[in-house]
Model the fold of this input.
Amino acid sequence: MSPCGGIRLSSGESDPRAPASALAWLKDRVGWDALAHLAAKKEVPIHRYTIFYYLGGMALFLFLVQVATGILLLLYYRPSASEAFESVQYIMAEVPFGWLIRSIHSWGANIFVGVVILHMVSVFFLKAYRAPRELTWITGAALLFLALGFGFSGYLLPWNTLAFFATKVGTDVPAQLPGFGPLISRILRGGSDVTGATLSRFYGIHVAILPALTTLLLGVHLVLVQQKGMSVPPSVLRQKPRAMKFVPEFLLRDMVGWLVAVALLAGLAAFQPWELGVKADPFAPAPAGIRPEWYFLSMFQLLKYLPSEIAGVPGELIGVLFFGALAAVLVFVPLLDRKASLGRPSPWWNRFAAVALAGALVLMFLALRLVPGATP
Amino acid sequence: MSRIVLALATLLGAASTGLSAPAPPPTPPPTAARAPAAIGCVDCHLALDDARVSPPARAFADDIHARSGFTCANCHGGDPRTEDMDLAHDPKKGFRGKPSPKDIPALCGKCHADAALMKQFNPSERVDQLAEYLTSGHGKALAHGDEAVATCISCHGAHGILPVKDSRSPVFPTRIAQTCNRCHGDPKLMAAHELPSDVYAKYSKSVHFAALNRKGDLSSPTCNSCHGNHGAAPPQVGSVANVCGTCHAVFAEQFKASPHQPAFADMGLPGCVTCHENHEIVQPSDAFLSTGKEGKCGACHEAGTEGARAAAAMYADILALKKETEAAKIALKREAEAGMLVAAAQFDLSRADEALTRARADVHLFQPYAVQQTVAGGLAIARTARARAARLQRERDFRRKGLLLSLALIGLSIAALIAKIRDLSRNRHS
Amino acid sequence: MDALEDGSTRRRWLTYLLGTSLGASAISFLYPVLKYLVPPATSEPSLSEIELDVKASDIPANSGRIVPFAGKPVVLFRTAAGELKALTATCTHLACTVQYRPDRSDIWCACHNGIYDANGTNVSGPPPRPLARLDVAVRGDKVVIRRV
Done:
């Protein structure tokens, strides 16, 4: 044994008494080399649709931004009806850079949902849901619903007039379903009406339940993505495209996108700070122009057009059942679209999706035009 | 039918007994110890179903006197316990039929001016109504033989008398003006007394009417608040300011300390109403001080005189405060819309509104210096608020500058990234 | 210097630039976050309870003052008997700010001579409704006002 202790050992075996460096010790304990090997192998195909590959990573990045700003916000936020509004006001006015954190969180939420939707739309049209990636799609659809849940529950937390009444309208929707509907509504609201109990519940949903579910599903989703690799659309597959390494080529390009997103969020926070509005007064009448956030607007508008009764069934119930059916189709698309699994084009699915998207967009713009936004 | 025959027979019988017996004392009022006598009058009068004698009987059921155990006989005399009309209407039993207007005050005063009696029913009830009435315009005219004036029953009703606190009573605060208007709105009747008949029309345009009838503020004045209840007479010229001053105390004190008070007294002009009217008291505006259509000062103070200059100075000061406060409010609102929080600044600015209210009160001192002082205080507050709005704007700009710095660093990073990416791809290809 | 050396110099320079700019950006993100974590001097965000800057010992018996509470004025006063009370200071008549009158131990509105007693009840003049009561507590020496 050398008196100096500098024995050269084979890799995988390090002398605990004399590590080559702290970093090397850490890498060894964590199993870094195996992970680095996997990462080095990951490749991203280069073709005309490569740009859509960035959307998944962007969604993930924006989610992490939400988690970080959300954690910072909950250091000052108070989830009770008598203090919620004032605590958000306090964050905006007194806490140093509170205005920045809060505006980034509010703007970030909307941009995050937008990117998730774009990601899903691009995956759909690129047929990335076909075998063997069906489960990736299904977990992804569930993640979309979780994102919408984050948006809906978070919207109430500042406890301003607009949020209060939008939540009232929103939690009325499940009550339309026969049987368990009213019970679901009651469970959501923590009572028969939207009150401080609803706020506590939505807070718990927003910072505990949904994050736990998201962590689980996101974990599964990401593992599946790594296992199966990047999907290539059938039309491009035939051309056998080149590939670039994920690390560092794709990752560096990802980072460009992430930095642009950060710049955008900071700019919005400084030039278009998110409004605070007026504290909710449950006894005041609902102001004109109550509407939910943009990602719920198409459903909101469609429900308005339904007549109060269709063949003896309440119109709203028909609407809710219709959305439920659409959601089910969305989740099970990979299992329903047999052609795509076989690598063949499925134009009817594309047309169906295009019509649904166009309809949703039209409804959304109608809602924006016809329902003047009330002052929050 | 048989009742009428019986009545006629009784009448004949009564007539034969002669009417020379002395009038017995009037039916004593009931006390708590004695049960009220049977109301024979009401039964008969109701059954007769006559347009003249039945309505009083119907109305009496609601009357407060009925609730206290009084009967028709307590005012009209006669015997309420018999069904025989002659016996019931017997003048020997004190029956006097329908009293004439000139007898009414004394009739009501028989009980209502008797302190010992009223104490049995309502110890805190006043007993000086009759004495007051005799000092009133109505009372004096009645004493001179004019029967076309108000007596007790003109305002309180005769048979369905409700307490003043009952909102259905014609003398409940919200209904007094209409009750007075029954006579005071009759041009022919008023012409005979040389009084105007448009008073109600004017009063209904006033802020006091709006406060009383629309906002439900029962402390707002109506006819009796300024003219008196039972001693109703218009306030004398020298006492108008006192009357208004019972509520508008601050303004009355200021007016008394002002040069207008001796001047008005000399000229025989009443305080307050010279500018504010007596019945058509509308919401005053700052334009009262101006030289325009709404201006009041020009009626006495010709242009160029010291008075006109004083008015112009006060008007200018008040307008300046209004303008500065408005500008501060707009500046703060702008900052609020840009996302800055302005609650504390707005709270402090509300004191400028108070200064404006006080300045408008100080106008009644008719000394420009006083208004100027108050306005100066308000201007200081408004200017401070504007300074705070400016500070908030600077903070907003600082945030944007900080942002630009971050953006610059991000831009630099992006440029470095892109250069690195290019370099890598060059390497791969070479 | 041949192309290869040029390349490696450039690469080093690029990596250095990338590292520095990313590092500086990271600091510009971290700075606000770290400042955010430090709680500000005014500690009370809640407007249902506010700790005032006034010390209880600064209010002698039979005196009062106006303090802000949730953006509205409140009259904080100590009765002759020594009890601390607080009432909303917005007169229920036409919204002027009332004041405590030591010579009469009542609350007075200077605008139209409205008078309230120490419980806030409107006793004289135009005010149609009483003043709302607020809860007063003393924490240490600081006065805390709460909505009832």
